[in-house]
Amino acid sequence: MSTTDIPAPGNRRDFLTLLTLAAGGAGVAAFSWPFLDSLRPGDSGSVRPPIDVDVSKLPPGQQITVVWHGSPVFITHRTPQALERLQQAALAARLRDPSSAALQQPPYAANWHRSIVPAYGVVVGICTHLGCVPTYAPTPDPATPVANWPGGYACPCHGSKFDLAGRVFIGAPAPYNLPVPPYAMPTPTTIRIGENPPGVSFDFSTIQQI
Description:
Elements: E1 2-4, E2 16-18, E3 20-22, H1 33-37, E4 51-54, E5 63-68, E6 71-77, H2 80-86, H3 89-92, E7 120-124, E8 135-137, E9 152-154, E10 161-163, E11 183-187, E12 190-193
């Protein structure tokens, strides 16, 4: 684990923590959001600046997890094959909200890939059921964690499953897709979490559930 920009006691800046660089099917360890919330400074009333994440060295198929406002945010570099699967009608038929009708994302992420650009997925890594952190399982598998697994996220607590766009599967206890935070891409390889693109207004507090 490596950490950057950790604030000193009393510092009111937001902080960015690199929790993991997942290789292949490896992912962030399963633990609940209240534990992650304890990692941030106790300044919930302050206004925090956005954080920039450089994804220029993030290989396709891998993911990093950063902490934003005390919550884990998954940033995934999706492969062309993964993007093809996200567009399949057979996958959409297995999802509760394939078109992102519920307000769980900014308007610029209300699309089939739920992101600004298809290659990079950005979602808050908190299961919308009871707040556990889903495991990154990007590799398709005929049987695990479910039959005809297309790749995505599996919650270790109560079994909710999400695809690589964070869309929840039908039958999962989680009622909503994983939230997408406000973010912008000031450069093709910089993701700025906590700031909307120019000319767009989106308040993260208006989402259905986190």
